[in-house]
């Protein structure tokens, strides 16, 4: 069964656009395209190379995820990306559980790059 690609909405991108670094003369892939691909990888628990090419390719997704984690952009962006569930309630687009089941997401959390997404057992111990 083919997966349906995930694309962030205009409203979602508008809500987080202030955290993205500005491009300094060098053309780069669109932040919406890349972040949508990163979200898709985590939601579907895919390896980076399994993401559809329309997101920019494995290297672009992995590189931007790493850069954004190290700069704090990823934590801010993912921590402020919401969608409505079937009952009209807001929920995070990417959850701690989604990140923890993915090798790169779990690694980023363990290194402290995604403090918004501390594992539940760590939050309960505090």
TrEMBL record:
Transmembrane segments: none annotated. Residues 8-76 form the Insertion element IS402-like domain. InterPro entries: IS402-like_dom (IPR025161), Transposase_6_like (IPR052909). PANTHER family: BLL5188 PROTEIN, TIS1421-TRANSPOSASE PROTEIN A. This is Transposase. It comes from Gluconacetobacter entanii.
């Amino acid at each position: 069964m083919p997966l349906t690609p995930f694309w962030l909405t205009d409203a979602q991108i508008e809500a987080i656009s202030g955290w993205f670094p500005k491009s300094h003369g060098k053309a780069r892939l669109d932040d919406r395209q890349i972040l949508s691909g990163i979200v898709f990888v985590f939601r579907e628990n895919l390896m980076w190379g399994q993401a559809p090419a329309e997101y920019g390719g494995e290297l672009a997704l992995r590189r931007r995820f790493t850069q954004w984690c190290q700069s704090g952009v990823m934590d801010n962006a993912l921590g402020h990306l919401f969608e409505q569930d079937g009952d009209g309630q807001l929920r995070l687009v990417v959850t701690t559980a989604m990140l923890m089941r993915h090798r790169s997401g779990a690694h980023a959390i363990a290194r402290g790059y995604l403090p918004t997404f501390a594992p539940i057992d760590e939050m309960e111990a505090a």
